[in-house]
Amino acid sequence: MPSRFLFLLASARQGGNTELLARRAAAALPPSAEQRWLRLADVPLEPFADLRHGGGGYAMPTGHGRTLLDATLWATDLVMAAPTYWYGLPAPAKLYLDHWSGWLRVPGVDFEARMAGKALWTITVNADDPGDDSGSALLVETLRRSARYLGMRAPGALVGHGNRPGEVLRDAAALAAADRLFREELLAG
Fold first, then answer.
1. pLDDT tens track for 11-36
2. Distance (Å, rounded) from C-alpha 152 to C-alpha 168?
3. Any residues with CB less than 8 A from the CB of 164 and at least 6 apart, and which?
4. DSSP per residue over 15-56, as a string?
5. For the chain: N or C, fewer Cβ within 10 A?
6. What is the pLDDT of residues 88-111, one digit of tens each?
7. In this predicted model, what pLDDT tens digit does every residue of 42-87 receive, in sequence order?
8. What domains can you pick out in the chain, each with its CATH number?
9. First to last CA, the chain
10. What local confidence, expressed as pLDDT, does residue 187 receive?
């Protein structure tokens, strides 16, 4: 089966540093790898309601929720392109993950089984000094644990550095890492 990459852009800024780094990494994908890009701000989700213990159940999502569920299930590789905001995920990325809790319980979706074996990649940019990735550690670990919970792989995390728009393009180490981010995984598969 060909690789199908879903890039989830979680920034509050269009064309920001994290998106620039994600697009750089995507440019190194082979032509056979399909790509789909979704800006989470363009497909906003309703606040998540935890119905697990209230006697109700979860229905098949509609609207933007269905768009994101279908895209998530389509992908072999999910790439969360999320800038580090206050040491964690931006609100749209966290809300997307919250909805996974509901999708796990929608009858007939079989979300957990269908997610197992997929890859969840992390691309983030923080405003720390180059070489200091500690400010993004919680974000990276949140995504690693989320992947592990569903039996997914978390093969790579790319952390760049920049604050003002375009500054990540001066982070030579991050650009070089973006060029090779997906290479080893795809060669192994």
1. 999 999 999 999 999 999 999 999 99
2. 29
3. none
4. T-HHHHHHHHHHHTS-TTSEEEEEEGGGSPPPPP---TTSS-
5. N
6. 999 999 999 999 999 999 999 999
7. 999 999 999 888 777 899 999 999 999 999 999 999 999 999 999 9
8. 4-188 (3.40.50.360)
9. 10
10. 65
